[in-house]
Amino acid sequence: MAVHALPRDERLQCDRRSEALLGETLAAFSGFDSARLDPTEWKFLARRDQFSVHRAVSCVDSHKRRVIASGFLAASLHDVLGGLYVEDDRELLTTQAILSPSGNTAVDAAVLLIAERREPRAAPFRFAGVKWYSWKRNLSGEGQECDLLTYERMGQAVTDGRETDSSHELMYHVILSLNKPEWPLDVARGPGFRRADMAFCFLYLKVCDDLVECFTLLDYDCRTAGSSRRAADTEMADRVLMVTRLPDLARAKCWKPRTCTLKMARTLPTARLNELIFCIWNADND
Question: How far is residue 210's CA from residue 79's CA, in Å, rounded to a whole number?
């Protein structure tokens, strides 16, 4: 993969956008109560396990839409963030293969730029950089190629106004679309290629040793997300619900490859066994 560099002014702009979205998400999270969502303002889209997704009925304009999601993940905070933290191209592709919605096939992925990386003791999950994802949407027997170029930040956040003894263990993951159509520099894209335009902020709060509360705020352009607005809603809900597979991802990363096959086969859906094999293949070739 070619060397990619982000000019300082563009990096600062991305950081400001990240901070703004994080601040907005923290404010929404501090006063959020899913039981009080007004159905005239929020439309239910999907639910998986203990995680629900809603879309705002009113839109900023005819194309921009907002989604919120909330729920719980049966995993430790360390496992959730450890599963998400990636600096390596091959590991990023494996991660996407495991997390991707069932209607999508992960094709390629790359870490194009690392501006900040973790420090094992001081900041074990800190990250800032540019990543690229490519997948194929399996529609009506034909695969539509899509990709997403993102500036991402991970780290620790604090919030006021929410009663919790674990406020110091609130982590965030911001994912912003990056408007650089020429990136990746060495990847050819066909005329039918669709590049997604979206902005995510995920918050992960430790509830106890094996339970994490997750809250998500997402803005997206429905023109780049699907063939229709309804299809865009479905695709975005599926993309948000990828977080429900983080416990599977944590197990895939933690278990030793030659001994985990039977254990994971009992816990993963059948549709995920190919991704499991791919994950084990990657680990065997480290």
Answer: 9
